[in-house]
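Hi team,

As requested, here is the filled-out complex form for the nickel (II) ion run. I kept the field names the same as last time so the parser does not choke. Let me know if anything looks off before we queue the next batch.

— J.
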Amino acid sequence: MYVSFHGHSVVKIKTGDFTILIDPFISGNGLTDLIAENEKPNVILLTHGHNDHVGDTVAIAKANDSLVIAPFELAEYLEWQGVRTHGMHIGGAYQFEFGKVKFTQAFHGSSYVTEKNEIIYTGMPAGILFSAEGKTIYHAGDTALFGDMKLIGERHPIDLAFLPIGDNFTMGIEDAAYAVELLKPQAVVPIHYNTFPPIKQDPNDFKELVKHSNVHIWEAGDGTEM
Ligand code: NI
Ligand code: MN
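And here is what came back:
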């Protein structure tokens, strides 16, 4: 399995013959190295409905017949737009042929702003546990710090965690460092920072606070074999 980071909250996983994109916000993402037209994922995983996470999902999914896996209300909304979806919900896991997906809680909002400036509420926001090839990846989505991160870490030993550190909309650096203590991942990659002015952060400050996990500060395009 090869896992890479592509700016903001975009993560790509390659396992077997499958390519999976998490939260493919590419158009308008000043920090990504990806070009939406070049991405041909088999699967798109979405944590919540905010536009900086759904991003280019509809265009990419329609062009490639990608399966979009998302919290139920968001999946329904995307299905109405002609996208092939699989709805799930928090606490539920499903074994797909490319790996196991489980949705976890996240403390945040979940809505989609349309081109007509309507806000469509898209259910609960989530985090995602993805397991394949004997490894488990946790993408926290957008979330505040919460105590049940301890439960997530106890129930699902995490090899690699992607945690937001941007503050303002999500955990900031100090809360994210505390989240690492609860989740106990082998390694952690900070995400969701420096994309917009209110979430400007120095990830080295996060690295200094984390004592018991390896912190990888990845630029867009960096990744690891695991
Ligand atoms: Ni959000
Ligand atoms: Mn966000």
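Two things worth flagging: Residues 106 and 126 are 5 Å apart (CA to CA). The chain has six helices and 16 strands.

Thanks,
J.
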